[in-house]
Amino acid sequence: MRRAPILQAIFKVASSPAVVFLVALVARLWVLSQLLPANAWRYFYQYNEPAHIAWSVLSGYGYSSPWANTLVMPTAQQPPVYPYLLVAIFKLAGTYSYGSLWIAVGMNAFCSALTAMVILKIGKRTFGASTGVLAAWIWSCWIYEAVVSIRLWESSLSALLLAVALLLLPDIAASIRPRRWLIFGALAGVGALTNTTLLSVFPFFWLWLWISDRRRGLSGKKWLAASVLTCVLVILPWTIRNYVTFHRLMPVRDNFGLELWIGNHEGVAHEYPSDFPLLNPAEYNRLGELEFMETKRRIAMQFIEQHPGEFLRLSLRRGFLFWTAPRNSAWPWISLLAWMGLILALRRKPLHAAPYAIVMLMFPLVYYVAHTYDTYRHPIESTILLLASYAAVTVAESLLKRIPRHGSKGCDFAIGTISKRILVQPSS
Fold first, then answer.
1. Is the pTM above the cut of 0.85?
2. Ramachandran bin of 65, using left for φ above 0, alpha for ψ from -120 to 50, beta for the remaining angles
3. What value does the mean pLDDT take over residues 320-325?
4. Which residues contact 145 (CB under 8 A, 6 or more apart)?
5. What distance in Å separates the CA atoms of residue 27 and residue 143, rounded to the nearest whole number?
């Protein structure tokens, strides 16, 4: 009988957003302390495209040159949010300095720790307290997540933006307050300028909001239109910059031809091709960025047209790798659990589960047809862990219900208390 209050106290501590945040932050700072002293340049700066653009901006060359040893020329290879964050950090603490690196990756660690709190809140509200706690603690304590989240890249910020979008959706759907709709539109715009792949999910989020409003008998058309317009207005200055610079309509970035070619050309391998600009910039320097990207796109499209079967095989392989990489990790099982969790959620609460289905189905599509690495999955790993945790908790609840109810009254009381207050605690 004494175990139940102890378990309740432990669960209360584990359910604390502050505790989850601190654990996640400490785990990431510990990983940084192990990696940074000896590997600051090699693991973080040496081949980093946003950092090279930030260096170019501060050197007076403007937003240009994502790769070393390339000619100074304007670029749209990267969306602008993360490179300009590095510009601010470099200006504050020095270009390519050790202090700047600590600030930049520390910011990533902070964003990832905030994401743990958002995971906890989403899980409690949508899937139940047990699911939220389990997913948040896996995100916080798993060394894999800690290492990926501190890369000198936009992944942690993208993961936070997507998690916040999922957190806001139900409140926006139930509200006619214009401010929430406008905030969501601004969030979508910032997300697009951080990681353009996020644009694959936000239109479907707006569609979900429209359907939700209709089911509730609300009329939110004008606020939906205002939300979309806000997103467009956030993106518009960068689109104008690209048009003025390149004399071509280019809403955010121009690198799809290169990405498509990396995964679809004669003799495609699992590493970057030898004439990728990071390895050999000669062709990029000769053609210029736009013509280089267009040339790679034509080569990729010709390969796809001439080898449709090979393209299908490569796409299936990329799909498999997206959900299972890195090799010999737990990701195949986590992904399988996540799809099981999605199916369960769609059966039990289809409207509430639909945004998570959008993320799982739409976000990876571009990587299936182009190319993928395991780090590309990071922005949606909070969703994957939530759904996997939901499946695991559902299975645990089912097994507990099948345990024969015999033995001492104390045992019956403990099992009943745990089941009621922890495993089957309702959403808050």
1. yes
2. left
3. 96
4. 112, 138, 139, 381
5. 8
pLDDT bracket for residue 270 (50, 70, 90): low
Closest C-alpha to 198, from 235, 172, 226, 173 = 235
Note the maximum CA span of the chain: 81
Tokens in use for 421?
């207050």
DSSP alpha helix (H) spans, 195-247 = 202-215, 221-246
Helix segments in 247-330, DSSP class H = 256-263, 282-287, 289-306, 308-324
**Burial profile 401-426: b = 16 or more Cβ within 10 angstroms, e = fewer:** eeeeeeeeeeeeebbebbbeebbbbe
pLDDT tens readout for residues 364-420: 999 999 999 999 999 999 999 999 999 999 999 988 888 765 444 444 433 334 334
DSSP reduced 3-state for 299:
helix
Return the structure tokens found at 304.
């796809």
Burial class (CB in 10 A: 0-12, 13-18, 19+), 166: buried
Q: Is the pLDDT of residue 233 over 50?
A: yes
Q: Which long-range contacts (CB under 8 A, 24 or more apart) does 264-269 make?
A: 264/300, 264/303, 264/304, 264/311, 264/314, 264/369, 264/370, 265/299, 265/300, 265/303, 266/303, 268/314
74 three-state secondary structure: strand
Residue 75 has pLDDT above 50, yes or no: yes
Instruction: Indicate the DSSP class of residue 425.
Output: P
Whether cis (ω within 30° of 0) applies to the bond prior to 326 is yes
Q: What span, in angstroms and rounded, lies between the C-alpha atoms of 350 and 300?
A: 39
CA distance 332 to 323: 6
d(CA 180, CA 90): 34
